Amino acid sequence: MRKRNVIATMVTFGAMLLSASAFGGASATAAPAAPTGVPLPPSSCSAVYFDIELGQGVDVFCNQAPATYQVIAQCNNGVEFWSSDGTVTVAYAAPSIALCRGGLLAPAEIISYYVIE
Question: Cα–Cα distance between 101 and 76 in angstroms, integer?
């Protein structure tokens, strides 16, 4: 998938979550299922997983965070384990997005994530 398409997809999912939260806090039903073994987001947050070139990303929107929040993704490529910091964002404004990028022979995947408020 081209970088432009990934960004357009992230913006679309973020807009869907933002508009859904404005109407009673419902989450988008078109979101792909979470990878196996990944815990569910906190009750006030919605998560959307997406594929990127040689990796995965998570888009987390929290509508009841106190002020700002950030998602931290736990990444693994079969050889290494690392954390990827997401964007710091304001509650109700935009989603926090964290990306796990791997290499050609070892694509990355998200093992879990957590939200810092």
Answer: 9
